[in-house]
Structure formats: structure tokens, C-alpha cells
Amino acid sequence: MRPAVRIASLVPSLTELVVALGLGDRLVARTGYCIHPAEAVADVPKVGGTKTVNLAKLHRLAPTHVLVNVDENRREIVDGLRAWGDATPEIIVTHPIDPEDNLALVWQLAGCFAELPGVSERAAALAESFRHALDATRPDGRPEQRVLYLIWHEPWMTVARDTYISRMLARINWRTLPALEAGAVGAARYPAVAGNEGWLVDVERVLLSSEPFAFTAEHAAAAGAVCPNARVERVDGELLSWYGPRAVAGLAYLRALADDNRPVDPDL
Questions:
Q1: Residue-range domains of the chain with CATH
Q2: Pairing between strand 174-176 and 156-157?
Q3: For the segment 9-57, what is each residue's pLDDT rounded down to a tens digit?
Q4: 155-212 pLDDT, tens per residue?
Q5: Distance (Å, rounded) from C-alpha 152 to C-alpha 50?
Q6: Does the pTM of the predicted model rise above 0.85?
Q7: Residues 191-202, buried b or exposed e (16+ Cβ, 10 A)?
Q8: Helical (H) or strand (E) element with 164
Q9: 155: cis peptide before it, omega within 30°?
């Protein structure tokens, strides 16, 4: 007899997806960054951050399945899980790098828990929502914008073009700079910007992500000095970087950005 399903999610967007699939009552562990939906995760034990998991605590919670992501979690965490011997859980590795990958992601998780009631039906409904959102969010006819998407300061850090964030922005014909593809894994996917690169004068928009760094008006002024021809604005990092259910709203948010009808952030 198979043990009851006990899910540990080490990725915030996957935690939200688990709940959307009706599996919230199966969650036994999450990271401190897994905050959505708040009412569903409030009582789920935290086991550290996405890159600093307390493996001893996680072991005591006895998960049967652990959800990880190539970008979000360190390889050492997975190696630590595999060292549990007979207690090693099923490790579900995810790596969406394009908004289109949300469809495969939904069915990947649904397939792992298809024997549980209602999972397949919820997955089908969510996949349909993604199809509509993707069809409505295309670059056709939209003017190209050259953008610098900043996720960190000291140093400034941005995203390569083969990251999920960059490909989200490409859905509205916003092309991230630098024009760099860094491969499937590694720190180069989130390159540092020194501030003296020649291409910075070509940037038309600087987007300050609301996460993981808390940018202020002072940072916005500094970014404007680095990119003298750019409009600087803060954007919702969760909506632009989280895959799973939040990406449906994220695609709508992208359309609002492209149509310039998003409320202006008063702090900038």
C-alpha cells in the first residue's frame, strides 16, 4: 500500500500551483517565500528559504514528494534529499523558461498526483485559462521596446534572454538588454551590469522588479542616471516571474504594461 501523499514545495509559484490543483491539504512543508495563497499556507511548516533549506527539519516532516526548480533551488539541496536512503522522497524537478511552458508544468504536476480526486479536472481548467491568456498576449503589432529589467542592486543585476522573465516580456515585444542568452543553468542567466556598458544608452525602459530587491526612489534615480534615455518604473515581480496560476494574471498585467494603462507607482 502506497503511503499517503505528503508534498513539500521549495518553490513559491509551485506552492501556489499545488493549492490550485486542490492539493493544499497535502502540503507538509514550504519555504518562507511561499506566501500565496496566504490562507492555504498559513499553517504549513516553513523549512527555510529556496536556497537555504533546513534538510533536517524537512526530513522530520516526512514528505513523499518534494517540488524543486532548476533556477530557484541549489543542486546541493537535491543531493541532500537523495542521501536520505529509503526515506528519499520523489523529487519533482521543474524548469519552465517560457510562458508557454506553464501548460506542460500544469500537466507535469497533475500527472504526479492524477490518482487524487479532482486533480485532472482542475488541471484541465487551469490549462484552458493559460491557453486563453497566451492567445491574448502576443507581440504582433506592438512596437518593440528595449528594456533593462533589474532584479538587484550592488551590483545591478538583470536577466538573460533565455530566462522566463525575459520571455514573458517578449510576449509584448519588449526585448531585454543585454542581448545575451546564457544557457539553461548558472549565474550567467542573471548577469551583473557595471553601469558603463555602451548598450545602456539604447535602453528605452528600466523596469525595477518588486522582488527580490526592494528598490526605492533613490535606486530609480540611480538607474535613470545609468540609462539616460530610459523611462524608469517599478513593476510587479511576482506577476512577471512566477509561473503557475499567477502567470494567468501576469499575462494580463503584461498587456496593461504594453497598453500603458497600468497605474503609476506613486513611490517612483
A1: 7-135 (3.40.50.1980), 145-258 (3.40.50.1980)
A2: unpaired
A3: 999 999 999 999 999 999 999 999 999 999 999 999 999 999 999 999 9
A4: 999 999 999 999 999 999 999 999 999 888 888 999 999 999 999 999 999 999 999 9
A5: 17
A6: yes
A7: eebeeeeeebee
A8: helix 164-170
A9: yes
